[in-house]
Amino acid sequence: VAEQMPEQMPEQMAELMAAAMPENLGKAKEFGRANALAPARGASMASIPAAALASTLSEGNASAKTAALDPTRSNAGQALSSNQGVLIGDNQNSLKVGLRGPTLLEDFLLREKITHFDHERIPERIVHARGSAAHGYFVAYAALTALTRAAPFQAAGKITPVFVRFSTVAGERGSSDTARDIRGFAVKFYTDEGNWDLVGNNIPVFFIQDAMKFPDLIHAVKPEPHHGMPQAASAHDTFWDFVSLMPESTHALMWVMSDRGIPRSLRMMQGFGVHTYRLVNADGESQFVKFHWKPKLGTHSLVWDEAVKISGADPDFHRRDLWEAIESGDYPEWELGLQIFSEAQADSFSFDVLDASKLIPEELVPVTPVGRMVLNRNPDNFFAETEQVAFCAAHVVPGIDFSNDPLLAGRIHSYLDTQITRLGGANFHELPINAPLAPVHNNQRDGLHRQTIPRGRVAYEPNSLGGGCPFQAGAAGFVSFPQALDGEKLRGKPEKFADHYTQAKLFYDSQTAVEQAHIEAAFRFELSKLTVPAIRARMLSSLRHVSTKLASGLAAGLGMALPPAMPKVLEQPPTPEFAVSAALSLRALPGDGGVRTRSVALLIADGVEGASLAIVRAALQSAGATVHLIAPRLGAIQPAQGAVIDATGSLENSAPVLFDGLVLPDGAAGIKALGKQMELRDFLASQYRHGKTLLAMGGSTSLLEQAGVSASLANGEPDPGIVIGAASEAKRLAADFIAALGRHRHPEREAG
Ligand code: HDD
């Protein structure tokens, strides 16, 4: 169309189009050199040297999957058309009889547009409705052929494209990102032997042990059915009623009430496959495995007061953070690790590896790093990719198989089933984001929205009329691990499943004092929201088995007597292998102490001291932090000397909770102007309260005093998160500030 009609495009419009900046600036590269180097589909991905691919991928975001998606992306520079390809001359006015007359039913263009609009929404996911996603790749460190024949692990340096969706569980599609909740961590590997979905969470254990209880759990946590409240929150009666009656949920409760329930960023949280799976090698030998994702940036969290306020200031906080990091080329990265263990080892453990409410301490089975995953490309279209992607716990490839975990069994059924409704029929696997790179040939036919056009009259197997095709792949295909089984048909649980507290206690006892205090505060907050005191009492009677300190602290904090301990199902559980596990604390993965992508507010106003500010700003930028220049209003700010600075935000539109650190400049007039602002006191107090890093240069220490912020801790020691000094020392101050910011936050303040 464009070729036939270029002269019909008005000249100014062509200019405007040429000048228009693409929303995603990095995208231009995809269609250049990097894309030309993209691996062809299938096994050829393995033949491209890892070094070449790593640079190719990080430069241009190319992968076999993004190349496969390219034809589905609509192009700029085209004239407007209807869905039938008819060009639209006027997209402003409906068809009328005279300018003031009635609109005609004949207006098929109006009717097509409105009808399509009327059907733009699809049902949201029953759980994990709120999510954010990105494309990337997984690269294997070494060949794992002795362990598994799964395609991504067949050669060192082998690249497999991935699409990853992170989510909250309870909230609706438009809910806030920073709700206290488990985060979904779903990875679709487009392997050359079919799609493998590792549909995990940021927490390694689950609330229930059997899929039979999943609808009950979700009904309990979702908004209460009579009035539809509260949104994206577990702090209400029905959730705590259910979990206090289900002691198997205690371990998962400990995790979600810990700071893991409010991550700082999706890029700063771990991922876990949760269940025990099997790895199977080409000889049919099998080992058990648990999957772990460890973030390169380390694990970091918000504090509760901050999370609540971010919900108002920027409900898209995590979505924006992920998007912006990828757009700026700071690609988030995780290392994949495996806990590999034999069936005999599993039998010797004090817990059952088929119980999803238990983890395997890393001290018992170490996590072996096997590869890394990089997310280097944002989706082009939220709906077509993030919303329509369909993960399924049943999607495994040869070399990966299931264990008999009864929670996993329910999941193997649930995902495909729910997606048939959500995505409107049985053919959603053909949607571009869901389609595998591996070829699909079978006799499944018809259904709503079928895309492929099968040829010929044969749609059955065996056949002779189609030359026997498609034929069974035999050993080249998926072969279930032939586990020998013998048992009675019954409903019940193995005995070790009844130990509900040993690992909840292990988790609590492995936390630092600050983490334990946060867990207690989270329980206190949630339980304080209940309207039925008996539920509170029941929960405390259960928590006594985790820690008397925790339960009695809660009783005191909630103004109630400590109830007697709940009877245990298993009075004498097996002795655990470890009483504490260092890996369970968020402190176990501090990251590299760098400040890349950390967001820092530099407060400015007319009359600030420009030279020292410029030094600090440059140092932060060269360390990779994102600098925001926040002033009483937008526009040009005139420092005491030097060039004007353009404010990037105003005190009104930039809530303090959105920044990891704060810089106060020197300069008498500027300090005076800032001191007059209503928002300033809140800004400083909030940064201080949330343990953020503050730098006050020269006379701006008066602003700290004005906000009641002390540079010393309650014990008289200097606060490690407050850097103070003369503007003439800006270079050293910047270095100290960056080092302190690398600690993420300063919980020492909480002691006082
Ligand atoms: Fe689930 C979605 C993770 C137990 C049934 N689940 C869903 C998603 C994640 C998980 C990350 C969102 C995928 C996406 O981004 O689209 N679910 C888990 C984990 C579980 C778990 C780690 C326990 C270890 N789930 C679980 C059970 C059942 C389900 C026991 C049912 C028996 N989950 C679903 C579902 C969802 C889903 C209803 C909703 C939307 C969807 O599947 O596509 O089928």
Task: Describe the fold and architecture.
- This is Catalase.
- GO terms for molecular function: catalase activity.
- Decomposes hydrogen peroxide into water and oxygen; serves to protect cells from the toxic effects of hydrogen peroxide.
- This protein has helices at 11-19, 33-36, 50-60, 64-69, 108-118, 214-221, 237-245, 250-257, 304-313, 317-327, 343-348, 382-387, 406-422, 502-509, 513-528, 533-543, 548-557, 610-622, 668-675, 678-689, 701-706, 730-741; strands spanning 131-140, 159-168, 183-191, 194-201, 271-272, 277-280, 286-295, 333-341, 368-377, 400-402, 599-603, 626-631, 635-637, 645-647, 649-650, 661-664, 693-697, 722-725.
- The protein is α/β, with parallel strands linked by helices and 752 residues long.
- The protein has 4 domains: 77-120, Cytochrome C Oxidase, Chain J (Irregular); 131-430, Catalase core domain (Catalase HpII,  Chain A, domain 1), CATH 2.40.180; 512-588, Up-down Bundle (Hemocyanin, N-terminal domain), CATH 1.20.1370.20; 599-751, Rossmann fold.
- Strands 1, 2, 3, 4, 5, 6, 7, 8, 9 and 10 form a 10-stranded antiparallel sheet that branches. It has a 6-stranded parallel sheet with strand order 15-12-11-16-17-18, with helices on both faces. The chain has a two-stranded antiparallel sheet with strand order 13-14.
- The radius of gyration is 29 Å and the shape is globular.
- Mean pLDDT is 92; it is low at 1-10 and 16-60.
- The protein binds CIS-heme D hydroxychlorin gamma-spirolactone.
